[in-house]
Amino acid sequence: MFAVELSRLHGLDFVVIPGAAFCLYLVGLAIYRLYFHPLAKFPGPRLAALTSWYECYYDLVKGGKFLWEIERMHEVYGPIVRITPRELHINDPYYYDEIYAPSTKRRDKDHEYVKLDGAPGSVFSTTQHELHHRRASALLPFLSKKAVRHFEPVMRQKLDRLCDYLSSCIARQNTLTVSHFAMGLTIEIISTFAYGESYPCLENDSLGSHWKQTLAAANEEAAFLRHFPWAHDLLSWIPPSLIVRVKPTLGLLISWQQQIAEQTDIVCQQYRKGTLPSGTVFHAILQSDLPAHEKEPWRLNSEAQNLIHAGSETSAKSLEICLYYLLADRRMLETLRNELKTIMPEPRSTPSWTELESLPYLSAVVKEGIRLQLGITTRSPRVAPTEVLQYGKWMIPAGTPVSMISWFVHTNKELFPDGLAFQPERWIKAAEAGFRLDRHLTSFMRGGRQCSGINLAYGQIYISLAVLIRRFDFELYKTTLDDVLPDWDSFVAAPKKGSLGVRVKVVGEVVE
């Protein structure tokens, strides 16, 4: 009997001892994070300093609300806040260029942040400063202003196809979702720019709706995959059909990644056969002086995912925002249309991007649309590996992830009063006063890791908006301000769940 009882006690040891050890570890970790961690003296909620589950709760349970919790933290604790056990956030637009510094200063990306991407070989996901510079340098010549201007005829060809479709909608009186046709346009442009041939989107009434749903799914899953990055590997073992049934948005993401991978394999085969069109982004990478391992399909696949995603979504969303506010305010619409007539005397005139940039009101409208597009609303932390940063009285230890979300810059009451209002005049007044307000436009980030596609985005928005406003009369259909105002963080700003987006009818073509 004694032997039996003893064996039972030994059996319990296998449960009790590891459990007790784990509890002691948690207690020790809590004490370290609250009292001995290098960030222990920085202000912020104790719970946020204690565990990353605090952030996870706002991201996944509350549904993309951590941005607004960070905003609340700043209201309570001031301009610098410890938002997770290992990370700081600063709300001070005049400190932005210290965090997102020029390439002369080393700023790595936080290795924990880039896990959300699932594309470790891309420029976007490259953490190390030097490697990022080498990879980005292979792309920059083909994303310069000069290269985008050279690409204008292709952009206009795609835009003409969209205009033909919009003209057909007048007699049919069908309702259009702006994000669908805007996404269809930008997807065709960026895929042609990348591969030399486009994904067809403007051939039927579905337009870019499938791509819109796919990229929205990719954004929606970003928070989950950032908190649980191991899911990337796990998903590779699960049949796609099962993923689609269990979690449709994740299934869309997986399907899209497979489609991009197949297209990348085709590109690599074309290059080896000498049939890949020159002047495309992937031809540039494969022809660059990058080492051979940087040109392998797995890395090009990662690059393709981010080029297609970033190269379409920002431009499409900015175009949607501009069209909504112009159609909601006839005064702004007529002001812009009258200005466009000075270089577009006929509705079908085709001015260059350079000519369009010279128009002050159009430029103000575009910048205001890009400001309210907000860029990435999920923070993108930077790390100074060997440099101690100073913010006021605070010395930020080297190696600390620090971020500043564009939301806080673009809604700053000093720089942008009534920050969620669409007011193109603010840019004109700032220019007249000699104030460089555009220095605080951070939708494409700033510094050495500024988005490589910024010129392509601007070119698309200027040309597309000018052509659409000068040529067509639209009217809003069952659309309100709630369909454009940010309500939750889905990697990018998203309106209230259930919103059908900005919807319009094409009521006619402009005759003069």
From TrEMBL:
Gene3D superfamilies: Cytochrome P450. Keywords: Heme, Iron, Membrane, Metal-binding, Monooxygenase, Oxidoreductase, Transmembrane, Transmembrane helix. Signal peptide: none annotated. Its cofactor is heme. InterPro entries: Cyt_P450, Cyt_P450_E_grp-I, Cyt_P450_sf, Cytochrome_P450_monoxygenase. The chain crosses the membrane at residues 12-35. One of its GO terms (molecular function) is monooxygenase activity. It comes from the Eukaryota. The keyword Secreted does not apply. The keyword Transmembrane helix applies. Heme binds at residue 451. Belongs to the cytochrome P450 family. PANTHER family: CYTOCHROME P450, N-ACETYLTRYPTOPHAN 6-HYDROXYLASE IVOC-RELATED. This is Putative cytochrome P450. It comes from Aspergillus heteromorphus CBS 117.55.
